Amino acid sequence: MSSSTPVSGLVVVDKPGGITSHGVVSRVRRLAGTRKVGHAGTLDPMATGVLVLGTNRATRLLGHLMLTRKAYDATIVLGVSTTTDDAEGEVTATTSAAHVTEEQVREALLAFVGDIEQVPTAVSAIKVDGKRAYARVRDGEEVVLKARPVTIDAIDVHRVQTLGDTVEVDVSVRCSSGTYIRAIARDLGAVLAVGGHLSALRRTAVGGFDLSLARTLEQLEESFEVVPIEDAARATFPVVELDAEQAADVRYGRRLALELAEITAVFAPDGEFLALYEPAGDVAKPLAVFVQ
């Protein structure tokens, strides 16, 4: 059911497999009755799970949301390497992993936890000389990306099962934005000298938005639900309630006599979300104003 009055807010989608993030955006544009829909970080077509979208004014909020921590459930297959480091790529090598033990898997994964340098998968969206890495790979080029700093808070191992010459490993990962779970699968296979790739990936949380808040596309078709921009701001940032004079200053983009410790959402006396402000010495300056 389409919304007759476009609403500014967040839509938390439980993305299905086999569809691109852009495909989800297209569906939500139709349901929301607006072209102004953006996302806070894509998911590969193979992947499922939490995809945070913004509608109308909230698209400007997406870039400021504290969505730097993410969580995933994943299945790694040891013994098979692919061109894309996941199940959608062509197999490049097979090596029996039947000898790999659960203890070896757990010990190897310990080295991936913490602040590490990770080489992104070659089929990432990272630009190399103005062209996406995945496009260069698709054109037959060999792409080697530079290592980037990422933080992996935890890797919890749930299952290690030998299946013929391969070993399946189910894990949960909590990490920073920019971490490639496919790269963890690839690098685990390299450490164990058997190769590896990702066979399943489900994102379970983006910042404070988890699967309990997510709705499938089918559910959104039946009842389109938007987290209002006011609620999203209150749930994500520290809040300051302004008086009428301060609220008027915000509408003109003026600095406020507030001492802030971090990016803060400011609200008018009637509860309207006005802007995000950030520290600027003894005052606060506007980072993003959402009203006129």
Describe the structure in your own words:
Strands 1, 2, 3, 4, 7, 10, 11, 12, 13 and 14 form a 10-stranded mixed β-sheet that branches. The chain has a 4-stranded mixed β-sheet with strand order 15-16-17-18, with helices on both faces. It folds into 3 domains: 83 residues, Pseudouridine synthase (2-Layer Sandwich), CATH 3.30.2350.10; 138 residues, Pseudouridine synthase (2-Layer Sandwich), CATH 3.30.2350; 53 residues, Archaeosine Trna-guanine Transglycosylase, Chain: A, domain 4. It is built from 8 helices and 18 strands. With 292 residues, the protein is α+β, with helices and mostly antiparallel strands. The protein is elongated. The model has no long low-confidence stretch (mean pLDDT 90).
Gist of the model:
The chain has helices at 21-32, 59-62, 102-110, 133-138, 181-191, 217-222, 229-236, 244-251, and strands spanning 9-15, 37-39, 48-55, 69-78, 80-82, 91-94, 114-118, 127-128, 131-132, 148-163, 166-176, 196-206, 209-210, 227-228, 239-241, 264-267, 273-280, 283-289. The protein has 292 residues and is α+β, with helices and mostly antiparallel strands. InterPro entries: PsdUridine_synth_cat_dom_sf, PsdUridine_synth_N, PUA-like_sf, PUA_sf, tRNA_psdUridine_synth_fam2_C, tRNA_psdUridine_synth_TruB, TruB_C.
